[in-house]
C-alpha cells in the first residue's frame, strides 16, 4: 500500500469539459506532433549521460517546451511576490546566498504534465515516482533528463531519496518537487509534506515556491489536464489533445532562505511555501515568458 496521501478529487466530481474543443484535424496533428517529438528524444536519451549536467538540462528544457507546444499548451511565466513575515515558529525569510547551491523548486501538483512544465521553464532535476521509469519510451526520456525517482510504495527508501535530492542541490542543480504527494484538480491544494524540505535544510539551499494553474484563454480554470482519482494517463492525454486555447500559468515566487540561527525546520519551510503557493490569486502579473 502506498504511504503517500490520496486527494479527494475524482474525475467525475472535478473534471469538466473544455470551454472550446479542437477539431479532428487539429487533434490528429497534435498526436502526430507529440509522437514526433517523443521519437526525436529517443536518440538523445541514449547519449544524454555523455553531456555535462547543465547542458543536458538546457536541452531538456527546449525539448519540454516543444512538446508542450505541439500538444497545444501555451506556457506563461509570471513573477509573484512574497509578503510573508516570520515568527518564532516560522523564521523570517532572508535573502538567499547566491553561491553555487541549487534551489528546491516546490510546486502544487495537478497533472502528469507538471514536471514537464517546470522543466520547460528552467533547467532542473524533477522528482518523480519510480513507476514512470518503467513507462515505455517515456521512462527512458524522463531518466535521461536527470530525474530523481522516489519509490511510493516503500517508506524505508525516503531517507535515501532525501539524501539524493540534497546531493543534487549541493552540486548546484535546481530540483523540482511536488510536496503534496498527490494530485488535485487545481481548484484547491492539499498540505505540503515536509520530508523534501529537509533536503534543502541539509544542503543549505533556498526554497522557491512555484504555483501552477491550468486555464483557458480567458481566466477560467481548466480541469481537463488534471490527473486525479482512478484517472488514466490515456484519458487525461485525450482531454489535453481535445482542448483548445489551453494555457498553463506558472507563477515563480522569490527564493526563501533562512539564517542558520533562525532555527528553521522542515515543517516551517513547508508551511511558508504552502502559504505562498496557495494564497489568493495574485493580481495580474506581467508575462515574463510566453511560449
From TrEMBL:
Keywords: Acyltransferase, Lipid biosynthesis, Lipid metabolism, Membrane, Transferase, Transmembrane, Transmembrane helix
Species the sequence originates in: Sphaerisporangium krabiense
SUPFAM superfamilies hit by this protein: Glycerol-3-phosphate (1)-acyltransferase
Protein name, entry field: 1-acyl-sn-glycerol-3-phosphate acyltransferase
Gene Ontology MF term list: 1-acylglycerol-3-phosphate O-acyltransferase activity
KW RNA-binding (keyword) present: no
Transmembrane residue ranges: 31-48
Domain Phospholipid/glycerol acyltransferase: 103-215
Pathway where this protein functions: Lipid metabolism
Cross-referenced Pfam families: Acyltransferase
GO biological process: phosphatidic acid biosynthetic process
Database matches in SMART domains: PlsC (SM00563)
InterPro entries documented for this protein: Plipid/glycerol_acylTrfase (IPR002123)
Amino acid at each position: 500500500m502506498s504511504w503517500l496521501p490520496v486527494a479527494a478529487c475524482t474525475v467525475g466530481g472535478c473534471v469538466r469539459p473544455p470551454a472550446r474543443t479542437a477539431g479532428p484535424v487539429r487533434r490528429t496533428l497534435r498526436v502526430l506532433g507529440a509522437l514526433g517529438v517523443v521519437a526525436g528524444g529517443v536518440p538523445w536519451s541514449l547519449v544524454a549521460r555523455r553531456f555535462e549536467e547543465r547542458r543536458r538540462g538546457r536541452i531538456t528544457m527546449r525539448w519540454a517546451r516543444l512538446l508542450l507546444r505541439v500538444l497545444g499548451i501555451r506556457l506563461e511565466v509570471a513573477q509573484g511576490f512574497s509578503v510573508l513575515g516570520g515568527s518564532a515558529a516560522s523564521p523570517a525569510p532572508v535573502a538567499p546566498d547566491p553561491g553555487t547551491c541549487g534551489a528546491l523548486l516546490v510546486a502544487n501538483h495537478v497533472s502528469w504534465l507538471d514536471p514537464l512544465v517546470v522543466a520547460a521553464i528552467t533547467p532542473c532535476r524533477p522528482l518523480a515516482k519510480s513507476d514512470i521509469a518503467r513507462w515505455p519510451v517515456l521512462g527512458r526520456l524522463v531518466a535521461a533528463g536527470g530525474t530523481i525517482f522516489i519509490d511510493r510504495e516503500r517508506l524505508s527508501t525516503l531517507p535515501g531519496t532525501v539524501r539524493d535530492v540534497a546531493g543534487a542541490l549541493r552540486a548546484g542543480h535546481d530540483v523540482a518537487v511536488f510536496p503534496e504527494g498527490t494530485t488535485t484538480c487545481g481548484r484547491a491544494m492539499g498540505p505540503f509534506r515536509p520530508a523534501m524540505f529537509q533536503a534543502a535544510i541539509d544542503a543549505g539551499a533556498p526554497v522557491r515556491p512555484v504555483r501552477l494553474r491550468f486555464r483557458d484563454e480567458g481566466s477560467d480554470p481548466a480541469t481537463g489536464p488534471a490527473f486525479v482519482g482512478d484517472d488514466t494517463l490515456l484519458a487525461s492525454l485525450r482531454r489535453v489533445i481535445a482542448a483548445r486555447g489551453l494555457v498553463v500559468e506558472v507563477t515563480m515566487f522569490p527564493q526563501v532562505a533562512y539564517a542558520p540561527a533562525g532555527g528553521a525546520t522542515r515543517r516551517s519551510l513547508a508551511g511558508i511555501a504552502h502559504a505562498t503557493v496557495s494564497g489568493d490569486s495574485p493580481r495580474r502579473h506581467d508575462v515574463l515568458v510566453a511560449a
